[in-house]
Amino acid sequence: MSSTRRHLGAAAAAVMALSLVAACGSDDEPAADGGSPGGDGGGEQVTISVSNLPPATESATREAFLARVEEFEAANPDITIEPSEYEWDVTTFAAQLAGGTLPTTFEFPFTDGQAMIERGQLADITAEVEALPYAAEFNPSVLEVAQDDSGNIFAVPTAAYGMGLHYNRAMFEQAGLDPDQPPTSWAEVREYADAIAEATGQAGFAQMSQNNTGGWILTTLTYALGGRMEDGSGDDVTATLDNDGTKAALELLRQMRWEDDAMGDNFLFDWGTINQAFAAGQVGMYIGGSDVYNSLVTENGIDPAGYGLTVLPLEGGDAGVLGGGTIVGVRPDASEAERAAAVKWIDFFYMSKLTQQDAALADAEALVATDAPLGTPALPIFGAEQLAESDAWVADLVNVPLAQMMPFKENILDQPLVPEPPVRAQDLYAELDAVVQAVLTDENADIDALLETANGNVAALVEAG
Known about the structure:
Order of helices and strands: HHEHEHEHHHEHHHEEHHEHEEHHHHEHH
Oligomer: single chain
Shape: globular
Number of helices: 19
Low-confidence stretches: 2-40
Number of strands: 10
Radius of gyration: 22 Å
Strand content: 5-15%
Helix content: 40-55%
């Protein structure tokens, strides 16, 4: 999904915090060694602009970002960095690209990667990425979101997550449920939601439904029940919104809403408002990215003691967990020198904390110093072994209630990761928002008819490309 769901801004703020440590900062490595080899001052001078400079109102993280820029420039005297406050917005991206206001390198969500590659909106940086010392170590299922069908690379994945079930441990206890034994089937999710609603008078389970989030979470449920929203790849993709998995997902929502009365009375949640309601103790369970805890702490003031996270139940032969994350790309009109400089910056600023112990520790120390969450479960950008190793580097500094997240952390790597729909994902999500809203607000909603109409509309968009 877009930043509304992935909170790219929050992720960027965390990256900025890393920079508070002079040696390493954010997601980067020491200036003088490793991932961003310094220039000797004798090459071609090049200037690039980079995204996600924090606004002046966030003075500490802004200063940290600028300090990292200075460090990079000192190590690479042939490169000048022009920081930009640009943050990804799918509604304005094309106009900014056409108007020449897009930074040379910028962050965006997994959701949009394939469409941007197909539209020629990203530079091919295969040669530059393959020259990195860890290029062969990328998790293939993560890297593929930044590749075309021929395996060419158009962006670098910097953070990945899987969808999970977030739950309120205190509300579980009020309902007589064991918070250390979260639901492991969708039947249990329904049962628990009913018990929570009965005991607390709040929503036992809540569902996002607007600003494309309804379609995003419905797609997540569909995957977990063995369905897919699209079939095929490349130029041969078919819309399949009316699959059995989606029908089962909507039927589950219908049952919790109309038969159990377990979903409260707000049926227009989006990413921000559902997080707010959950942190306020108004929602017992909801589906979201595994990294949402970071935002719940920094933006919503959640009580960590009441937070729980588990994997989604997977039911059906082709069931899987929807995955997402952040990737960093380069504008398509960048020169060869600009592409090389941009990948150096990406390596320096984003990647070294994943590959170098010193950088990881500096990153962790900076986050902890600003009371930002450290240790929220993530998916491996490289491999499971590397993730375990990098977790061990910072284990003594972890400040999140990791034991309460173990039902997720201990099981997520065993779940098949499924990417978001490859063609017109945002349009597909928007179309399904209306379907979700109809099921939650109309007791007599015809699920089959709603999906037939939505599928026809999305099929036309997919065919148009």
